[in-house]
Amino acid sequence: MTKISQFFSLTIALGLLLSLASCGRQYAKGSYIAPNEVILRSDKFVESDLQMIADKLTKSLLEDSQFAGDSHPTVLMSLITNSTDEHIDMKSLSDKIRTALFKAKKFRFINESLRQAVKEEVDYEGGAFVDQKSAKKRGRQLGADYLVSGNISTIKQPVGRQEIVYYKATLEMTDLSTNIIAWTDEVEIKKKFRKRFTGS
After folding, report:
1. Which of 183, 174, 187 is CA-nearest to residue 50?
2. Number of domains into which the chain is organized
3. What is the CATH number of the domain that holds 85?
4. Nearest to 100 by CA among 62, 155, 151
5. Which of 61, 79, 142, 148 is most open to solvent, judged by the fewest CB atoms within 10 Å of its CB?
6. Which domain holds residue 188?
7. Nearest-CA neighbor of 151 among 53, 25, 76?
């Protein structure tokens, strides 16, 4: 191969590499924004929807008169179900509600996700390797007074060049001793989008 051919081959290879690199996703300089800043750029469920639902439902529950005293009931937070056709991080919503309720210092929460790990640790501490003066004993865990559960559903309605997106989130607190719903409330979110058509 001549030096000219080698030069052209090298130039073509370099051009292909640069072309492939330019096809990758690139970002300009970034900056922080407020977590509660609302930016609606798609008709999907977004973080501002999650924040709005969690804030309103938490506020409603904390304002209920039956939980106004100093009883500090023990609560088991169940995962909120998703009846929409979208992927929604339901655990994030459930965690956000639980965190807000916890900070209000009106409820105690059972760590259901660590039950198996706690059981294994208590069983281990009951053995010969742990000083029994510090070992945690069986039968000391608290039972839940209430179970918190909920659901999110949606309706999307195209209207000409517009689309109306409606979400409804329901939360309820069930008394485990009676299976009676002690409290429930819902939040509705309605958004309007204008479709934009781009030429081919």
Report:
1. 187
2. 1
3. 3.40.50.10610
4. 62
5. 142
6. 30-114+141-194
7. 53
The DSSP annotation for 59-81 comes to HHHHT-GGG-SS---EEEEPPPE
Backbone region of residue 186 per phi and psi (left: phi > 0; alpha: psi in -120 to 50; beta: other values): beta
Query: Angle, nearest 10°, between helix axes 47-62 and 90-103?
Result: 40
Q: What one-character DSSP code corresponds to residue 179?
A: T
Bridge partners (DSSP) listed for residue 183: 173
Maximum CA pair distance of the chain? 90
94: confidence class by pLDDT, cuts 50, 70, 90: very high
- 188: which strand partners? 168
**What dihedral do alpha carbons 188, 189, 194, 200 form, nearest 10°?**
-110
Residue 65 identity: S
Q: What is the pTM of this model?
A: 0.74
Output the CA angle 100-104-106, nearest 5 degrees. 115
Residues 154-176 have a mean pLDDT of 89
